[in-house]
């Protein structure tokens, strides 16, 4: 049995863990090993829609996502240009109360330096000719937004980390994780690895993993769904869209295909055993939305549908940084269904903290409302509420 020791042991090779490994090694922070019992992007990162938008409800999130956006554009330009599309994002509603919330969001976003536009129904029809928008009461567009291919970005980060000296251990089940006098030790079937800094970036698996090592945090894994659609006629390029009335979002995906999502559940799912395909009810809701709002796409064939498990937190902010009362334990999780857009920016900030490349107080402050120290233990159970909403606060209506 081989044993090794590393400065940083990252658990999880989703977009979060791989982006963090990349940023740590770019800062030459020390030796980095990424461990995953599966393969990179085997979790939510390989199932995500990849919408990267600044239409968010929190200023910190907007700034983090802007950093991700910039980094994704550069990385994809260099390694896989078609994994990044700068196609903008637009939301609309026919509902009076939602239109008011959309207006408040516009004011807020404008104040945070986001370039927002209010397209008319005619403009929407020009952008998305398959749709009908005559009854739309209000719409908000962010033309600078993008869509990425999340599995490609995860691989780009992993390869980037590897080229800067990170090592990887994939596909071997974990046997034990324990804290001892020398730090944390991971035991797998083939080796043991000790580290003074363990980083849990295991997405929806983080809840159980943290519970097993007696440092539980308030995390709720929940299932959300997507489908790949083939419309009868290949669509011209269009922005990612979100119909606030039905909560369905759509984005262009490869030649002649559309990726549509929704079907977010408000109860917990176990990432080890969940229904991995799309539900009939989800597909029926998608079909209804297409028939009502996108007559040009109503006859789309469903090429495939799937579900993935995301991770909610009680206040809908991620949980990032050192775990209170657990020396050497850091977390990067609770990404509340928008971990693709958040991962690059958060990884950069967390790496600054772990690599001591910024003064500690400054680096902690840069993690803003995500700072892990706000939670002590798992707290009472809570229902997952998706993060991709229009309104701030604990009980957003849209
Ligand atoms: C259908 C769908 C659509 C989505 N659309 C978007 C979107 O448009 N925009 C957006 O920003 N986000 C989107 N998301 C959310 C996004 O996918 C996630 O927030 C993000 O991928 C989380 O990344 P992660 O690295 O934290 O977790 P994951 O990608 O889930 O990775 C966790 C990894 O941990 C590994 N692991 C498990 N157990 C262990 C262990 N014991 N030790 C080590 N590793 C372990 C797993 O094998 C897995 O590879 C969507 C998600 C889904 C499912």
Q: Can you tell me about this structure?
A:
This protein has 398 residues and is α/β, with parallel strands linked by helices. The protein has a domain at 2-46 and 151-219 and 314-374: FAD/NAD(P)-binding domain (3-Layer(bba) Sandwich), CATH 3.50.50.60. Helix content is 28%, strand content 26%. It contains nine helices and 18 strands. The chain has helices at 15-26, 59-79, 96-111, 121-127, 150-163, 206-212, 280-293, 339-354, 360-365, and strands spanning 2-11, 32-36, 51-52, 84-85, 89-93, 138-142, 146-148, 167-170, 174-180, 183-188, 191-200, 220-230, 240-243, 248-252, 258-262, 301-312, 319-322, 329-333. Strands 1, 2, 8, 9, 10, 11, 17 and 18 form an eight-stranded mixed sheet that branches. Strands 6-5-13-14-15-12-16 form a seven-stranded mixed sheet. Strands 3-7-4 form a three-stranded antiparallel sheet. It is globular and about 65 Å long. 51% of the residues are buried. The model has no long low-confidence stretch (mean pLDDT 96).
* Main β-sheet description: 8 strands, mixed
In the CATH hierarchy, the third-tier topology of the domain at 2-46 and 151-219 and 314-374 is known as FAD/NAD(P)-binding domain
The appropriate CATH architecture of the domain at 2-46 and 151-219 and 314-374 is 3-Layer(bba) Sandwich
Roughly how much helix do the residues carry, as a percent range? 25-40%
List low-pLDDT spans.
none
- Number of helices in the DSSP assignment: 9
The end-to-end span amounts to: 53 Å
Structural class: alpha/beta
CATH class of the domain at 2-46 and 151-219 and 314-374: Alpha Beta
Strand content: 25-35%
Oligomer: single chain
The number of distinct β-strands equals 18
Q: What's the CATH superfamily of the domain at 2-46 and 151-219 and 314-374, by name?
A: FAD/NAD(P)-binding domain
Distinct ligand kinds: flavin-adenine dinucleotide
């Amino acid at each position: 049995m081989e044993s090794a020791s590393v400065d940083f042991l990252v658990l999880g090779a989703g977009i979060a863990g791989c982006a963090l490994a990349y940023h740590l090694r770019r800062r030459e922070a020390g030796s980095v090993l990424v461990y995953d019992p599966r393969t990179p992007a085997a979790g939510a990162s390989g199932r995500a829609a990849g919408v990267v938008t600044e239409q968010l409800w929190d200023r910190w999130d907007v700034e983090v996502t802007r950093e991700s956006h910039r980094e994704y554009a550069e990385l994809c330009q260099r390694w896989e240009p078609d994994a990044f599309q700068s196609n903008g994002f637009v939301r609309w509603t026919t509902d009076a109360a939602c239109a008011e919330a959309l207006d408040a969001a516009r004011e807020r976003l404008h104040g945070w330096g986001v370039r927002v536009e209010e397209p008319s129904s005619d403009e929407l029809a020009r952008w998305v000719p398959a749709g009908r928008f005559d009854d739309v009461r209000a719409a908000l567009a962010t033309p600078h937004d993008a869509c990425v291919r999340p599995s490609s970005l995860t691989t780009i980060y992993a390869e980037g980390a590897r080229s800067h000296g990170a090592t990887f251990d994939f596909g071997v089940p974990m046997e034990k994780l324990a804290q001892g006098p020398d730090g944390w030790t991971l035991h797998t079937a083939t080796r043991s690895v000790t580290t003074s800094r363990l980083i849990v970036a295991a997405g929806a698996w983080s809840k159980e993993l943290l519970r097993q090592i007696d440092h539980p945090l308030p995390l709720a894994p929940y299932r959300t769904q997507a489908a790949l659609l083939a419309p009868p006629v290949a669509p011209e390029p269009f922005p990612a869209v979100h119909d606030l009335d039905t909560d369905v979002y759509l984005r262009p995906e490869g030649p002649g295909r559309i990726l549509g999502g929704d079907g977010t559940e408000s109860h917990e799912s176990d990432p080890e055993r969940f229904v991995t395909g799309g539900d009939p009810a989800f597909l029926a809701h998608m079909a209804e939305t297409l028939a009502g709002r996108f007559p040009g796409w109503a006859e789309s064939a469903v090429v495939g549908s799937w579900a993935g498990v995301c991770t909610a937190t009680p206040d809908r902010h991620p949980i990032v940084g050192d775990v209170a009362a657990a020396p050497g334990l850091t977390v990067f999780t609770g990404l509340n269904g928008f971990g693709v857009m958040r991962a690059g920016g958060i990884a950069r900030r967390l790496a600054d903290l772990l690599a001591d490349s910024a003064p500690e107080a400054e680096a902690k402050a840069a993690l803003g409302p995500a700072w892990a120290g706000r939670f002590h233990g798992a707290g009472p159970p809570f229902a997952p509420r998706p993060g991709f909403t229009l309104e701030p606060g604990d009980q957003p209506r849209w």
